[in-house]
Fold:
Amino acid sequence: ICKLVVDNKIKIDEINESIIDEHLYTKGLPPVDLMIRTSGEMRISNFMLWQNAYAEMYFPKLYWPDFDRKALYDAIEEYQKRCRRFGKIGEEDA
Structure:
């Protein structure tokens, strides 16, 4: 994106969400719905920040080698119980 600006292909004030999204490695993929971080660590360590903006987070206390089919089903079941708000707060999400 910086090179596009330097090469006068776009103006800096033309940079928007769409341009940023088009220049990510995950271009063309759907947004993340559920992000699972094993080990119980309740942080994402700057992992896919743009893509995880509206993702539901799940933090099982299992370590990755122990995360099996049942653990995945548990995560999906928990996800199904959630009310997705996509950043909305207050009465808007009722």
Summary: The longest helix spans residues 69-80. The chain is about 25% helix and 5% strand.
